[in-house]
Amino acid sequence: MSGQDFFHQGDRVAVLTAQPLDRLLDYRAPEGGCFRGAYVEVPLGPRKVLGVIWGAGSGNFDSAKLRSVIRVLDVAPMRDEMRQFLSKAGDYTLTPMSLMLRLATRAPGLSDPPSMRKVLRLGEREPDRMTPARSKVLAVMDEFSSMAFTPKELADMAGVTPSVIKGLVGQGALREEETPRDQPYPVLDPLRPGKTLTADQATAAAALAAGVESGSYGTTLLKGVTGSGKTEVYLEAVASCLRKGRQALVLLPEIALTAEFLKRVEQRFGATPAEWHSGATMTERRRVWRMLGQGNAQLVIGARSALFLPFRDLGLIIVDEEHDSAYKQEEGVLYNARDMAVLRAAMCSAQVVLASATPSLETWSNAEAGKYKRVNLTARFGTAVLPVMKAVDMRGEDLAPATWISPTLKQAMALRMERGEQSLLFLNRRGFAPVTICRACGAQVACDNCDARMVEHRFMKRLMCHQCGETKPVPEVCPSCQVEGKMAPVGPGIERLGEEAAALFPEARIAVLSSDLFGSARALKARIEEIAAGEADIILGTQLVAKGHNFPLLTLVGVIDADLGLQGSDLRAGERTFQLMRQVAGRAGRAERPGEALLQTFQPEHPVIRAILTGDEEEFWRAEAAQRREAGVPPFGRMAGIILSGSDLAQVFDLGNALARNDGPLRQVGAQLFGPAPAPIARVRGRHRVRLLVKAAKGVALQDALSRWVQPFRMKGDLRLSIDIDPQNFF
Ligand code: ADP
Ligand code: ZN
Asked: Which of 532, 449, 107, 490 has its CA nearest to residue 280?
């Protein structure tokens, strides 16, 4: 441990605040002193702000003007390991520490005293006279002497009216006491037996448990087809971790998956764990944050930001569906939760398990290179077998105009209808139609604020911009040529496909699953459960359905446009299509009934489509890796995206050109610079966007070069510069 750990009253301390300042502030330690890492309240101008004692003060601030820390907050101090994690993560993503602290304090009411609630204890005195009601109350107090109840709880448990309780308090037979509102989480029991594992699963579970037992850092890829029991296996690793008395974190890519997962945890460990995601209530967030710090929560199920929670002793992080692009935060602090999980684990000697049926190329090649361990589950659990994959060559199919379901696919669906099984049609396009065009002049309806076409959403009877969320009614009159009644939808969205399916199978019960069709995660979850229980014959879904949901009656998956993801210049287009198609296909035949997946494609001979069909994954990854190594791109080279934006296009480009002219720090490390060029989506919310791309060799200190490069530039007016290390998207 470096530096001083305790500061006496009046000592100079450096405080990190969440305010947008690029340095630490000096204060005097408060009365009673404070430890390094303590959360404190400090005066800043006229305000009081939250901060963390970062270390000894720098001294270069007039000591006469030095103000004192107001008070130390009543929460567990930030641990050293967390301070290091925030610093390293900040360095890696080129994020100022103030923003990193913000990520680590995203719980409400941290500076509140822990709010109290009133509970009852046995008093000193006997009641003046004993009634049956009074003796019932005292019997409950006797029986549960170690527990504390609120007056209402006690009245309910004893089956008496609140006035009986009040009477006893008045007599001094019960006394009121204040206790903290945030209660510890119910204890999970890792000794309860899990399911009996297959030989394959047991080997995998033992490998993961050995890692946890070692008490040191390590990352393991848990690779297994959908339904092979990855979840069962990593729950065993969680059990090992809890048995060691350490805490565990399970990251899921999608809130909608949480409920099903909580149930499985409850079955396994006898109680529900803590949850951390945007759908959790403020009270819940506050409780999670505080209880983790005190060690009164053993397991958290969360979204990517759970990585920044103040675990007291984190021993295991599971990243489920590790390849999922939802792990990349694309706004604010641009970080990839998968990579940050590895960093965090390294800081606190924890194990990471990256679970996937279709790992990212990064993870796959880290395993190949021996940086990560790898364990495989090759077979589906029980009688379930992987679906048969077939291409439907669309060049040979006869389709009516404005229809997208081929006769071959239709026939396969009809067979499922007959057998009382479910079919799923997959199309990764929300809305009714991606384009609205004027049949008179050919003009397309675009967003006024963005360089994007507006997508018709028929259920809400409006056009919507998927960039900024702006909506407008579908115009009667063409905004371009003023001709009336010629505006027409072009191309399919999931809603339109729903209409086509209904026309083909009028008797079918049809369910459309698209994130925008549900008001809340809860509503979506409820619908998914109904569908899983068999309350639909045909399911239509966007990307949403690819993620881990379990539909036992589903035996057919039809991919409407397997070529969709292969268009465009994205570095990861092939990888993403491969992952998505395999994930979607994996939805079929999860139970006893075998499944079939039909991929509609115009290019069945495309290498990616061929790899999907043959299922030769290792071959696919080897080929993909070879290509990327050749091109020197991630994971075999490094990249950073620079996005410049502002309301004045000329100004944005001027900045881009100035950056390009002064790329000395980049050239020093042999990095290449591309651009400036208009971003693929060149205008969002009225702001013009210009990108630059930096490419460097693997071992280069890229972040350092980048910060030296951009540092001299001042952002005039509303100009903004953001740096995306390891960009996942190139919009
Ligand atoms: P994955 O996470 O790989 O998709 P799951 O762990 O969800 O797979 O397993 C798929 C299904 O099979 C689940 O319903 C799970 O409970 C069941 N299952 C897997 N392994 C076993 C086992 N050893 N015993 C009983 N059921 C199992
Ligand atoms: Zn827009």
From this structure: 107
233 CA to centre of ligand 1 in angstroms: 9
Give the whole-angstrom CA distance, residue 165 versus residue 160: 8
Domain boundaries of the chain, sorted by first residue: 3-104, 116-180, 199-377, 388-429+492-624, 638-725
In 3-state terms, what secondary structure has residue 513?
Answer: strand
Give the DSSP letter string of 599-660.
EEES-TTSHHHHHHHH--HHHHHHHHHHHHHHHT-TTSEEEEEEEEEES-HHHHHHHHHHHH
Ligand 2 centre to CA of 455 (Å) is 10
Superfamily of domain 638-725: Ribosomal protein S10 (3.30.70.600)
At 483-539, the pLDDT tens digits run: 998 999 988 999 999 999 999 999 999 999 887 777 676 777 788 889 889 999 999
Question: pLDDT of 100-144, one tens digit each?
Answer: 999 999 877 777 766 677 788 888 888 888 888 998 888 888 877
Backbone torsion region of residue 227, taken as left when φ is above 0, otherwise alpha when ψ lies between -120 and 50, otherwise beta: left
Taking alpha carbons only, the member of 189, 141, 147 closest to residue 168 is 141
Q: Is the CB of 17 under 6 A from ligand 1?
A: no
Tell me which residue of 653, 613, 634 sits closest to 697, measured CA to CA: 634
Q: How far apart are CA 315 and CA 213, in angstroms?
A: 10
CATH topology of domain 116-180: Arc Repressor Mutant, subunit A (1.10.10)
- The helix-helix angle for 573-585 and 607-614 (nearest 10°) equals 30
Overall CATH class of domain 199-377: alpha beta
For 388-429+492-624, CATH number?
3.40.50.300
Q: Where does 3-104 sit in CATH, by number?
A: 3.40.1440.60
E-strand ranges in 656-710 read: 672-684, 687-697
CA distances from 543 to 39, 76, 365 (A): 41, 40, 25
Tell me, using a 6 A CB cutoff, whether residue 231 lines ligand 1. yes
Residue 1 pLDDT > 70: no
Q: Do domains 3-104 and 388-429+492-624 have the same CATH topology?
A: no
User: Which CB contacts under 8 angstroms, 24+ apart, belong to 340-343?
Assistant: 340/89, 340/304, 340/307, 341/251, 341/307, 341/317, 342/219, 343/85, 343/88, 343/89, 343/92
Ligand 2 ion: Cβ-proximal residues, 5 Å cutoff: 447, 449-450, 465, 467-468, 470
What is the distance between the alpha carbons of residues 596 and 578, in angstroms, rounded to a whole number? 17
Three-state DSSP state, 217: coil
* Cis before 676? omega within 30: yes
Ligand 2 centroid vs 684 CA: distance in angstroms?
Answer: 6
